[in-house]
Predict the 3D structure of the following.
Amino acid sequence: MEVIRKMDGFTCSQISIQHMDNMIMIGGGSHEFIVTVETNTAIHNLLSSTEEEEEEKVKLTVGGQACEFPQQYIVSMELVESALLQLLTDTSAE
């Protein structure tokens, strides 16, 4: 978590974690993140609990590349921490 907290979205904007057969990628920084988990059979994105009626896009730098993501893909540090804890301890996650 210390490395993720140091992500600023500019000089450090992406990390990858290999856990068993899963690759966990976290991009962004500061207070806006995107989390993707790639398994042998699928790619999953962590979604925020906000439900936007419109497909509002948010600009976020990931891996040094400025990209636009749907608002629902942007999550807080608290949600990143919770998701990582669940993934790394193999507990069920919503």
About this structure: The first helix runs from residue 2 to 5. DSSP finds two helices and six strands in the chain.
